[in-house]
Amino acid sequence: MVAIIKGALPGPKIALRADVDALPVTEQTGLAFASKATAEYRSETVGVMHACGHDAHTSILLGVAEALVAMRAQLPGEVMLVFQPSEEGAPGNEEGGAALMLKEGLFRDFKPDAMFGLHVFSSVQAGKIAVRGGPLMAASDRFSIKVIGRQTHGSAPWNGIDPIVASADLIGAAQTVVSRRANISRQPAVLSFGAIKGGIRYNIIPDEVEMVGTIRTFDDAMRQQIFADLKTVAEHTATAHGAKAEAHVPDQDGNPATINDPALTAKMLPSLQAVVGAGNVYEPPLQMGAEDFSFYAQQVPSMFFFVGATGPGIDPATAPSNHSPQFLLDESALDVGLRALLQVSLDYLAMKQ
C-alpha cells in the first residue's frame, strides 16, 4: 500500500518505508496478546509471528502519517508512505518486496529526493539509535548445489559413486572460499550452508545430495568472486570423487548491500540526536543481516537506521534476537521510532524548502 501526503507549501519529495510482513514462527513470549495465528507454509501448518518487529514499523509509520496530516497546512513538500510486503522474501520463486514495487513503478510518477527507513533491533538497547553512513547491512544471496553420484547398496560402495562423502568434502572445501580466497581484511564476508538432504534409507547410498546456503558480502567485486569460487570448488570437489556437481551460485536474485548515503546520513544525524540525545546515537558495526531497503537506496539517496528494542535490565548482547520465537519488543521503541522518523522527515523537508 502506498499513500502520498501533499503539504500546503512547496518543497521536496521524500519517501518513508515500513515493511509489513510476519514470519512462519510460533510465538513463545508468553504474553497475553501473543500470536495464535497459523498459516500454510511449504505444505506445513506453522505459527505466524511478528518476530522481526515489522508490526512495530507499520505502527510507527501510521503514527508519522497521522502527525504529518495534522500539520499539512504548514508542511512543505510531499511525503510518500510505503507499506511494503515481502521484505522477508516472497514465497518460492515468486517476485516480491522492494524490487517488485520498484519494477511495478513505485518511483515512476513520484521520484523522491530522499528516502528513510528504520528497523527495531534487539541488539540495541531501548532508547538508543544506531546509524552509520556508507555500508550498513550485507548483500544476501542464496545458493543451491546438487551433487550427483550413482546409487548403490551401502555394503558395496565401490559399485557406485557416493554423493554423501563428496558433499562432506565439498562443504569443508567451501569454507576456504572465504577464509583463504576472499580478502576479509578489507570487507567481511560469510558463506554458510543451511540445509542438506540426501538419501532415504540407512543401507542405500543415494544417487544425489542437495544443499542450500547463503552468502553475505558488502563489496560487489568480492560478491562476484565468491560466486565464481564456490562454483569452482563445488564442481572440482565433486569431480575428484567421480561425481558431478550442479552449482547454482546464486540460484535467484538476492538483496544488494544496504548502503546509507554518507552525506545524507551526516546531515540527518542531528535530527536523530535531537530525539534521544547525542550520547544515545552511535555507529554500529557492519551487520551481516540483509534488508531489501537496499533496492530503494540504489535509486535515491537514502538513510536506514536501527531503533533499540530491548528494554532495561536485559543485555542486548544476549536478548532473544529478531526472528526468535522469544523476540520481545520494548514498547518504548514505538515512541522513539515515531519521533525519530518524524523529526528526520520534518527537518529534511524544512532544510530543502
UniProtKB/TrEMBL annotation:
Any one GO molecular function term: metal ion binding
Cofactor: Mn(2+)
Free-text comment on the cofactor: The Mn(2+) ion enhances activity.
Binding sites annotated in the UniProt record for Mn(2+): C52, H54, E88, H119, H323
Keywords: Hydrolase, Manganese, Metal-binding
One Pfam entry name: Peptidase_M20
Residue ranges of every copy of the Peptidase M20 dimerisation domain listed in the record: 143-237
Domain of life: Bacteria
Family: Belongs to the peptidase M20 family.
UniProt-listed NCBIfam families: amidohydrolases
Protein name, per record: Peptidase
Organism of derivation: Xanthomonas graminis pv. arrhenatheri LMG 727
